[in-house]
Amino acid sequence: MDRRTIVRFVSGSPELAATSCVHIYWGGDPNEMQFVFTDFFRRIEDEAALDTRYREPETLAARFLVFMSMYSYEADDNEEFKLDFSGVSIVQDKQVEADDYAVYSVVCDGDRTSRLISTMRRPKVLYHEVMLADGEQQGEKQVVWRRFLPIEEAVEYNTKGDTNE
């Protein structure tokens, strides 16, 4: 079963509280999510590259939610998009430290003077790699360490890990 995914939209640093979070009921794997993020940013570049608000986490999160709702919607080829989709929602910011969640941060710089026209201007997407250990209470987990990997490195790391098994 796929891990659930939390995408945190932050301004400045992944350690900061997110201004918006999108919960996806599938995904998780960096290989799959890299494809999703690439497709998302390509759509922005193709359809609305002159909008300066893509550097703001709230605007980018709203567009991502709409994108994911269409992505999750299973329609027939000739059917138009309807609002009866599932698989994506908005959640409050929380550091999810569980094995069944994958967490990503989309780091926006808030610079409204520039436009997202090329791949060079895309916000950074970071994968949260967390090591958990048993806590003092039964069933409790505590964070031993956390690091943030650019999604490209997480894909490379994940691929190498798969081949070595």
Record keyword descriptors for this entry.
single chain, 165 residues, alpha+beta, six-stranded mixed sheet, disordered C terminus
Describe the structure.
It is a single chain. This protein is an alpha+beta fold. It has one domain (4-163). It contains three helices and six strands. It has helices at residues 30-48, 57-72, 151-163, and strands at residues 4-11, 20-24, 88-91, 101-108, 124-134, 141-150. It has a six-stranded mixed sheet. A hairpin with a 6-residue loop joins strand 5 (124-134) and strand 6. The longest helix has 19 residues, at 30-48. The chain is globular, with a radius of gyration of 17 Å. The protein starts with a strand and ends with a helix.
In angstroms, what separates the terminal alpha carbons?
19 Å
Strand content: 25-35%
Mean pLDDT: 76
Major sheet description: 6 strands, mixed
Note poorly predicted spans: 161-165
Q: Using only CA atoms, what is the Rg?
A: 17 Å
Number of DSSP strand runs = 6
Helix fraction bin: 25-40%
Number of domains: 1
Q: Order of strands side by side in the largest beta sheet?
A: 3-2-1-4-5-6
What form results from the Cα inertia axes? Answer: globular
Order of helices and strands: EEHHEEEEH
Number of helices: 3
Classification by helices and strands: alpha+beta
